[in-house]
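Treating backbone geometry as a discrete language has practical consequences that deserve illustration. Part of our work consisted of pairing the sequence of a single chain with a tokenised description of its backbone. What the numbers capture is local backbone geometry rather than side-chain detail. For completeness, the protein is quoted in full, as a sequence line and a line of structure tokens:
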Amino acid sequence: MQNYLTPNFAFAPIIPDHAAGSRVWDTEGREYIDLAGGIAVNALGHCHPQLVDALARQAAKLWHISNIYTTAPAQMLAKKLTEHTFADKVFFCNSGAEANEAALKLARKYARDHFGESKTEIIACVNAFHGRTLFTVSVGGQPKYSRDFAPLPGGITHIPYNDADALAAAISEKTCAVIIEPVQGESGVLPADAAFLQAARRLCDENHALLVFDEVQTGMGRTGKLFAYEHYGVRPDILTSAKALGCGFPIGAMLTTDAVAPSFAPGTHGSTFGGNPLACAVGNCAFDIISTPETLQNAVNQGKKLQTALALLGEETGVFKEVRGMGLLIGCVLADGYTDRAGELTQAALKHGLMILVAGSNVIRLAPSLLLNDEDLQEGMKRLRAAVASWLG
């Protein structure tokens, strides 16, 4: 097929055509087990009938009305998000990058409103990932994603992940925000230490800075809790969500408190499509399913089964030296003899009818449906075993 899109993506050599649950079929009729979840997006699998119905019903009523107005679906979803989290207010947008952009802008605006113009510094972690806008890619701390777009926005400091001492040394009265992923996703599925997040909360309080949790990938049930911060008992001032929030329909959200939200006064920030009725209708339905104890427990149970099976595969083949993660966000670190070859293994897996991901060049990442059943889990592992065997030759 002729490609008419810009060359910034290296597309896989198949074209997905239709899907259901954790199974995908391409235009040639080949079947795949999906343990990638659309990069942690398809939290309820593909074409969940309740989501399809919610979208169809809203599509027959109202698609878009602009943010001059609010709508019942937007207010309903915001109510659910606030009732189940630390937050009081929600800003809707279209993606994780936009949610993080809003969070960072709000943090600077809040600091300016309350402490003056010099309190602008943002502290982030090395090898973080917060999106692809110029601001968020600069905060992300991965030069490979930002260096070609210089000059970059200033006032950003990076510290090593999970290094509380480095954070204590970096933070000051000039710091307006500290942004952290509770689990670093793109750089290798690295969970935060509880002591690191607790120190971040304490240091932010001492320096009148806002603590921002980027839960674009870890939120909406991915780790077995609705949001990953619940595992740690550390409440942020701002939280960002996207990916699984719409289970495939584009929507992002920034959650914050009544103490912080007023800095986004009318006209300070906006989004043409943010909170549109279609996205919020799907988000409402997705929230109702994901937030049930049954769905969250399935993520915990199936995550344990997957980690156990992956660790066993690593022991038997020598291909993985570590399997880590939370819930159904799992990273398999390649053994020393296979360094930087994660992409090769994902290609081999695809040839064997399995969709998996990379997290950097040295980690295989799995982020399947939170509704993953035993049959698909076992079949996925069977295909991964076959792929590893062929890859090792």
About this structure: The CA atoms of residues 150 and 363 lie 28 Å apart. The chain has a mean pLDDT of 97. The two ends are 31 Å apart (CA to CA). Residues 293-317 form the longest helix (25 residues).
